[in-house]
């Protein structure tokens, strides 16, 4: 069959798209076949990420154990001066303002003594009267003794006369009844006088003893009255600083009131509480000689510095005694004393009321590792750079000294380095890219070479 030219053009136009699609599908299939038959390249392991850290070398040192406590300084001697008599203040020392200093025996203030002087004069007069009474009793005693002897003689004579007259009258009717009765009356009168004198002589010693007792009591009253006069003038019992002043000229003071507060700043005491661990583990405090490993408190040295002042000056101090152990807070309180003479030359000496830091120094411990305080984790571990891998090591803090901590640990290796960079839960054994601290801890000579080789290896 013969196709016309027009029909031939139509047929050619409809076949061309089909041919193109067939060629395209053939190419895609060939490429897919080639991709499946080509061998795959070997897989590369993922690159491990390195952590950049700063570190310092591990150096073993010898250092004494220390513990730090805080407390407030107070004077060892502080007295409240109270008047022992009442009255109006007539005069006072012009230097009694708070902060002023007075010497021992220096005049402080004076109370009106007029009433007390009158009482003393009355007591003195009463003593003199009582002495006169005793002398009168002694004289009367002596006179009555002599009188008794004469009365006894007269009584015997009167008795004889009465007996004679009575006998004459009754036997011979000589004399009169009135003469006999008169002689009897005289005898009885003398007999009564003798009896009364004997009673009086018995009472005289008792009266004299009573008068002497009253004299002693009145002398005591006189002494008390004179003491009251003396107590109207008050003097400083010791040299010290005026802490409080509650008196003014013309004001009334009463017995026992707080007039002045005087304190001695030459010796200050600080009550310093230490925890169980600090006292018995760190400082190893003990008092029994049967435990030679224990340290007596008097063999510990300590220094005190004021936290209240900006000047970080410390002075030597001494542990005076153990005050108490508080079972609730589990703390041992020590009394630390500071001498005023040791504060000479300080920019601002420690004063009453200042809050102070006390540093106790105990026995020396060897093989300690000094690390920055920020390198010690809260769970008492440190991070190490060990052969460029991160390791976690448990340590025991022994000494805290400002920004540094001394620790002990048995697992430190010679080439270990302590990581000083703050890390938050790092992965164990992660690879490290260490840098170097600007101010590393000085190394002994035999480790300088190791450090140089280590740096070269890292590079």
UniProtKB/TrEMBL annotation:
| Gene Ontology terms: cellular component | efflux pump complex
Cited InterPro entries? MdtA-like_BSH
Q: What Pfam families does the record point to?
A: BSH_RND
State one molecular function term (GO). Answer: efflux transmembrane transporter activity
Keyword Ligase present in the record's keywords: the answer is: no
Q: Write out the coiled-coil annotation as residue ranges.
A: 180-228
**Swiss-Prot/TrEMBL keywords:** Coiled coil
Q: Where is the Multidrug resistance protein MdtA-like barrel-sandwich hybrid domain?
A: 81-259
Q: Which SUPFAM superfamilies match?
A: HlyD-like secretion proteins
Origin: domain of life: Bacteria
Q: Does the keyword Coiled coil apply?
A: yes
Annotated protein name in UniProt = HlyD family secretion protein
**UniProt source species:** Desulfocicer vacuolatum DSM 3385
